[in-house]
Write a structure and sequence with these properties.
Length: 140
Amino acid sequence: MNFQVTVLKILVSYPDGFAPMVDLKRDMAILATSGRDWAERTRRLAARVPDLDIFSQALVERRNGGWRITENGRAVLEFMEARPAAPEPIQAPRVEETTAAMVAAMQVPPLRQAVDRAKWRRERRERRREARERARANAS
């Protein structure tokens, strides 16, 4: 599992892109134990931006006991998730070059992505609920 990609994916799912550390750790634990699919997916996404460093590139900022994704972070995540137009391997540009172009290019996200994001959030909420129920059952 790629930690930095996972952090971006978790933060983008929260309102305003901010998550308290407790929630962030819980979501990371859920995804880390969700199986090989998530690890492979984050590895593929990370390969699109090999020099990814969420803090030094100001993609995530620390705030009031939590982390918040920045606009540059959203743009880099959109770039990583975008499907390549050609089946050929793509040489990924540096993050700094990508963020300015992506922020300018993405005015309105496609409807399909919004539906996928809603589905992902719904599944995540369900996994969190199940994890809470398991924790309560184990505690008693």
